[in-house]
């Protein structure tokens, strides 16, 4: 990581790359989302070297933001690393402390309790608990989980037939499809991403320029 940080400081410094020098936390947001999505896609790829490369791209974004913050005097990469190390130790008292657990369900219960304590017991709103940057299907699935909603295939088919030809109608059908997927234990975001990947793979390559 030290070598990556050195590279990023060189790119951002005098005589570095004009494009890298122009970037801000805000301008890098789409790249962070894109690189995270590509890493998710790589998990499904049989060649694990591809996953290593995509995780490197995600790590680049961490380094990029850290160098920008370092320049602004707001935080450093060391702060980023220290924060996550302390969080992981704090949230695993059954490993780093004396707490005893009977299984993963109890681990998750303790995790949520520790998170609440970190906020001083202040509850989060539903919107706070579902990141706005999630893909539409993933965000709907998370919202439905919070609301305790479930769906069935029959309900989806009925809604498809009755839905108006409008944006609201499409949204209602998509939400019902997400609910149906969740009832089957299927992640709708991943399922659609994998289907889209198959469609793209079947398309002909772009013609080479003459």
TrEMBL record:
Residues 23-96 form the NTP pyrophosphohydrolase MazG-like domain. It comes from the Bacteria. Pfam families: MazG. CDD domains: NTP-PPase_MazG_Nterm. Coiled coil: none annotated. PANTHER family: NUCLEOSIDE TRIPHOSPHATE PYROPHOSPHOHYDROLASE. This is MazG family protein. It comes from Deinococcus taklimakanensis.
């Amino acid at each position: 990581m030290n070598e990556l940080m050195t590279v990023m400081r060189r790119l951002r410094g005098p005589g570095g790359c004009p494009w890298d020098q122009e970037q801000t936390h805000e301008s890098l947001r789409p790249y962070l989302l894109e690189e995270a999505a590509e890493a998710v896609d790589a998990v499904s790829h049989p060649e694990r070297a591809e996953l290593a490369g995509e995780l490197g791209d995600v790590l680049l974004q961490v380094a990029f933001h850290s160098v920008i913050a370092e320049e602004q005097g707001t935080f450093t990469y060391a702060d980023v690393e220290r924060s996550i190390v302390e969080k992981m130790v704090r949230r695993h008292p059954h490993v780093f402390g004396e707490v005893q657990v009977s299984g993963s369900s109890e681990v998750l219960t303790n995790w949520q309790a520790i998170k609440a304590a970190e906020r001083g017991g202040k509850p989060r709103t539903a919107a706070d608990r579902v990141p706005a940057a999630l893909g539409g299907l993933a965000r709907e699935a998370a919202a439905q989980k919070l609301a305790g909603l479930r769906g069935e295939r029959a309900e989806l088919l009925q809604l498809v037939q009755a839905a108006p030809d409008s944006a609201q109608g499409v949204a209602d059908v998509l939400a019902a499809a997400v609910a149906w997927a969740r009832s089957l234990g299927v992640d709708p975001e991943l399922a659609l991403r994998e289907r889209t990947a198959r469609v793209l793979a079947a398309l002909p390559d772009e013609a080479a320029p003459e």
